[in-house]
Structure formats: C-alpha cells, structure tokens
UniProtKB/TrEMBL annotation:
GO terms for molecular function: ferric iron binding; oxidoreductase activity, acting on single donors with incorporation of molecular oxygen, incorporation of two atoms of oxygen. The keyword Signal applies. It comes from the Eukaryota. Keywords: Signal. This is Intradiol ring-cleavage dioxygenases domain-containing protein. Residues 101-219 form the Intradiol ring-cleavage dioxygenases domain. The lineage of its organism: Eukaryota, Fungi, Dikarya, Ascomycota, Pezizomycotina. The keyword Phosphoprotein does not apply. Residues 1-17 form the signal peptide.
C-alpha cells in the first residue's frame, strides 16, 4: 500500500499524545461540516467588526523565566480575509507528528534554507461564524528537500511501506519512528483577538508519494506550564494545507528545492490525501502574495482561513 493510501485510510497513527487510529469522517459528517461552512461563508464580512475580549497573556503563567518569547508579530492581514474563507475537514496527521518538538514561537525556520513564507492563518468557529481568539495553531512540515525534524534519520525518498520494512516494524497504533530531537519547521502560536496568527517559515519541499503540504492542528484547550512545556487537551481540527501547482513549479525550480532530484514530486492532482481534503468543496489551498509585491521567489505571505467545529472534538 502506498503511504498516501495508508494516510487516507487512517492506518498510520502516532505515538504519544494522540493515540488511536484516526478515520476519515463519514459522508454525513462531511456534509454537516459543509453546511456549517457554507453558512459561515456568507456571514464572513461581519467577522471583521467582531472583537473578542480575552487576555491571551493569562495563558502564559510563569512566562517571565521560560525560553520562549512572548512578542507578537502583527499578522500582515489583521482580519480574516473574506475572499479566502476556506475550511479544512479532518484529515490524518500522518506519521511525522511529534508534539514533543513543537515549539511556541512565531518563526520556526531555525537554520533551514528555503524561500521565506509568512503564513497568516485565521480561525473561525464554524458554529458561531466568529473568529476564535486564543486558540493554538500548530504547524509542522518538511524542509526544502523533504525531511522532517525529529525524523531526520528517515529518508524522504523511500516509500513508507519500504521504510517500515527496513526498520523491521509493523504498522500499529503506537508507531513511533522519531530519530532525534531537532525542532525546525515545527511551531505553534495562538490566534489574536481577530482570530489571526502569523508563523514565519519556509516554503516546504516534498517527500515521496505526497504533494507539497503543511500539517496544521488547532487546539482550543491548551496551556503553557511553568516550566515552559505545553499541555493540551482536545484537538479540534487536524488538516493539511497545500499550494497551487503553478506556484509549486515556480518554487521547486529554485535552490535548494531544485536539487531534490532523487524522486519525482507528487502533484495535488494525484495526491489522495489532498483529494480527501477537498471533499464537499473545501479548499485547502493557501492564497499567496509576493512580499515585494512582485516576485514570489523572494518570499511570500500565505493566507488561509481554517474553520473549526468545536462540537466535534477528537
Ligand atoms: C469582502 O470584504 C470587502 C472589503 O472588506 C467588501 O467590500 C466585500 O463586500 C466583502 N465580500 C463579501 C462577500 O462579504
Ligand atoms: C527569573 O529567574 C531568575 C533566576 O532564577 C530570578 O533572579 C528572576 O527574579 C526571575 N525573574 C522573574 C521575572 O521572575
Ligand atoms: C533537510 O534536512 C535533512 C535532514 O537533516 C538534511 O540532510 C538536508 O540537508 C536538509 N535540506 C536542506 C535543503 O538543507
Ligand atoms: C524483525 O523482527 C522479527 C520479530 O521481532 C525478528 O524475529 C527478526 O529477527 C527481525 N529481523 C531483523 C532483520 O531485525
Ligand atoms: C514540566 O512540567 C510538567 C508538569 O508539571 C511535567 O510533567 C514535565 O515533565 C515537565 N517537563 C520538563 C521538561 O521539565
Ligand atoms: C521521473 O519521471 C520521469 C518521467 O516519467 C521518469 O523518466 C524519471 O525516471 C522519473 N525519475 C525518478 C527519479 O523517478
């Protein structure tokens, strides 16, 4: 079975914080979500005037002496963009989730080379059609040549089934393939009063059998402990976000992406997780604008709205 098939079937799960298999939602559930999202889409202009008054600082007890920095970069987009009101349904988080390496920060690049990407995410409550303040948005993605931090010992060019064979492990609910403690291209940050947050990263590369994507989770129930580690309860949304094929082509023609020649890139059109992500008219594709107003290869701001359904907590 191909990795993408395994992912789509929810057969690949993670160890640690999120045990158990994650199945794709039923047709009925998807329809229900779609109805919620349609309702929000028509109301979305009113989000801009909404203001939720809650103090995010309260979520950072003992912050004075921890390693993270509480200094909010203002998102490029201050409010949720009504022309890109898109909602992602639940898809699998895949085998490279590693909560231990997720770091609270607004720049998760570390030393990874690549084209700068400022990812602006707006989060909407699909039930109320209001922005969600103070929800933690959690990203992880591969580097320009397809590797994930914490899993750098695994080849991005080896099909997943083969990789498991090589490692002599069988597929199970407690699959733990992590190889190290690197943290690059993993980060999380809460949304502000407008339901917005911004994360700086690089445009992702690709690995075997998957289209270019960024994993994203949204947590409503979370807190920073006194020692700087995170505690989260429920995850309300798990998704993957993608880029347009023409944009991907342009970026993949640049260094260091272009040096990844060991495998051919999978496009959105043939990626089976992407297919699941677009069911019922969802659009998980990031809108981008060049930072210099002209050339995306110099860096870009990406924008996407994620609708979450708090009544369906995993
Ligand atoms: C989107 O926002 C713009 C300006 O903020 C407004 O002119 C337009 O009517 C809005 N569109 C919808 C569909 O609400
Ligand atoms: C932070 O920790 C240092 C050393 O433990 C201590 O001297 C300092 O007062 C602490 N700062 C705050 C704001 O608690
Ligand atoms: C991506 O990460 C792998 C594993 O650490 C590393 O070997 C590779 O050089 C990185 N890619 C780039 C473009 O730096
Ligand atoms: C693979 O695992 C099986 C079962 O634990 C064991 O019998 C076998 O020797 C292992 N093979 C290798 C190559 O490690
Ligand atoms: C941080 O605190 C939590 C809860 O008190 C504890 O379980 C965890 O082991 C601590 N982690 C570190 C790295 O100190
Ligand atoms: C990529 O696809 C082309 C065209 O199908 C093929 O000729 C080539 O061998 C493939 N390269 C790799 C590394 O699989």
């Amino acid at each position: 079975m191909q990795l993408s098939k395994l992912l789509a079937a929810g057969l690949v799960t993670l160890a640690a914080a999120h045990p158990g298999p994650h199945h794709q939602p039923s047709k009925r559930e998807l329809t229900r979500r779609h109805e919620l999202s349609s309702r929000c889409a028509s109301n979305v202009a009113s989000f801009n005037s909404r203001r939720v008054k809650r103090n995010i600082a309260k979520r950072f007890p003992g912050s004075a002496n921890t390693t993270y920095q509480i200094q909010a970069e203002a998102p490029y987009y201050e409010t949720i963009q009504n022309d890109t009101c898109v909602l992602t349904p639940e898809v699998t988080e895949g085998p490279y989730i590693w909560p231990q390496s997720q770091t609270l920060r607004q720049d998760m690049t570390e030393d990874q080379p690549g084209i700068p990407l400022w990812l602006d995410v707006g989060v909407l409550d699909m039930e109320t059609c209001e922005p969600l303040e103070g929800v933690l948005v959690d990203f992880w993605h591969c580097n320009a040549t397809g590797s994930y931090s914490s899993f750098t010992g695994l080849s991005p060019n080896t099909p997943f089934a083969e990789l498991l064979e090589d490692l002599n492990v069988t597929m199970s609910g407690d699959l733990d393939l992590h190889t190290d403690d690197t943290t690059w291209l993993r980060g999380m940050w809460p949304t502000d009063k407008n339901g917005m947050m911004e994360m700086k990263t690089i445009f992702p590369g690709f690995y075997v059998e998957r289209a270019i994507h960024i994993h994203v989770q949204v947590h409503t129930d979370w807190t920073v402990r006194g020692n700087g580690t995170m505690a989260y309860g429920d995850t309300v949304s798990t998704g993957q976000i993608y880029f347009d094929e023409p944009l991907s082509q342009k970026i993949m023609a640049q260094e260091p992406y272009v040096s990844h020649t060991q495998i051919n890139r999978t496009t959105n059109a043939v990626d089976s997780v992407f297919e699941g992500d677009t069911d019922n008219g969802y659009n998980p594709v990031v809108s981008v604008i060049p930072v210099d107003g002209n050339d995306v290869t110099k860096g870009m701001i990406g924008y996407i709205t994620i609708g979450v359904d708090k009544t369906k907590v995993e």
